[in-house]
Amino acid sequence: MDIYFDNSATTKPLEEVVEVMKDAMINYYGNPSSLHSLGLKCHNKLMEAKQDIARKIGAVKEEIFFTSGGSESNNMILKNFEKEGNHIITTKFEHASVLNTLKYLETKGVEVTYLNVDKFGFINLDELKNSIKKNTVLISIMQVNNEIGSIQNLEKIGNTIKNTSNRARFHVDGVQGYGKIKVDVKKCNIDFYTASAHKIHGPKGTGFCYIRKSLNLNPLIEGGGQEFGVRSGTENLPGILSFVKASDVAFECMDKNYEKILELKKYFIKKLEEINDVKINSPIDKNIIPYILNVSFLGVRAEVLLHMLEEKGIFVSTGSACSSKSVQAKGSHVLNAIGLTKEYIQGAIRFSFSRYNTKEEIDYTIDVLKESLKFLRRIKIWIN
């Protein structure tokens, strides 16, 4: 029996999503840019897909651009602000696709301010307001943190930016929030929003970028000028249509799924009380998404515990899957940002849930954790 608690890394595609992809590969194999009838049929499906995604976030179809996923979308947006003397604001615990891109921009003369977060991962609006300068061109803040689940108040952040600067644009990495909680890009004054299909039981290699209609971006990829010149390359229509299907299911079941996952998280935390020396880094709170449970197990190394769980068919993460190897070497930058000490950071495991998980899986996981921790603590595998 495999128990998959790594859904923030990627999710299992829904059967209906797989069926849509199969059908699209058979019946919509034409190039949407072709002038013949098959190409036109595919182009029309592409436009329908844009409209479907746009409605879900309060946008219009002309503002939706399909990409390979969150990392490409984030790079495309951020690199458009590569100019010496520009100032960008972000937080200390963004995803690697944002932080590493900003590190690159710093080598090109861009000034970057990294906002602090509190022990639960929330920014201070006064610090944000005071950080905005005349040369501030972009503020990049994620919707939901991928390691501890903090949900930023995008509406308050967007209003703060709008009321402080006429120049600064607002970029939101929505990869961990899209399809799980609602977002209205207009209400929140968001200029750029990014999402990825494989986080909501869709296919890998497909995502979208929302770009406010009045804004123009230079393409990251040059070529045939697809996606209205913003993102060249033949559109992955089977991936896009299956992304739309995954989105439809996610939004239709959003409230139901949220409540189910919240009950699972509450149950998991209650069961963890049976284990000594445990710290919950993502507690039950309306501003912390229930899909993520980050737990520190004192006295053990997370990567060792991870592999012991794996041997019993339980799959978890030590942090963001995109940077798990660097987490082993340096410790999670997210947990560092919220002020955890080394012993808590190096014993931290992320459990992330989906609609497929059950209380029975949690019961089994707790039994394995008890057995594994008893063994590891007895032989004293301590942090160096």
What are the key terms here?
2 domains, Aspartate Aminotransferase, domain 2, 384 residues, 13 helices, seven-stranded mixed β-sheet, Aspartate Aminotransferase, domain 1, three-stranded antiparallel β-sheet, alpha/beta
Structure notes:
With 384 residues, this protein is an alpha/beta fold. The protein has 13 helices and 12 strands. It has helices at 15-27, 37-57, 70-79, 96-106, 125-131, 154-164, 237-252, 254-272, 302-311, 324-330, 333-337, 342-345, 359-378; strands at residues 3-4, 64-67, 87-91, 111-115, 136-140, 169-173, 192-196, 207-211, 278-280, 292-297, 314-315, 348-352. The strands form 3 sheets. It has a 7-stranded mixed β-sheet, sandwiched between helices. Strands 9-10-12 form a 3-stranded antiparallel β-sheet. Helix 2 runs parallel beside helix 7 and helix 3 runs parallel beside helix 4 (96-106). The radius of gyration is 21 Å and the shape is globular. The two termini are 34 Å apart.
Poorly predicted runs: none
What does the largest sheet look like?
A: 7 strands, mixed
At the fold tier of CATH, the topology name of the largest domain is Aspartate Aminotransferase, domain 2
Name the beta content range. Answer: 5-15%
Q: What's the helix-strand series?
A: EHHEHEHEHEHEEEHHEEHEHHHEH
Domain count: 2
- Reading off the top of the CATH hierarchy, the class of the largest domain is best stated as Alpha Beta
- The total of beta strands comes to 12
What's the overall average pLDDT, rounded? 94
The CATH superfamily of the largest domain is identified as: Type I PLP-dependent aspartate aminotransferase-like (Major domain)
The CATH architecture of the largest domain is 3-Layer(aba) Sandwich
Distance between the termini: 34 Å
Shape: globular
**Which structural class do the helices and strands define?**
alpha/beta
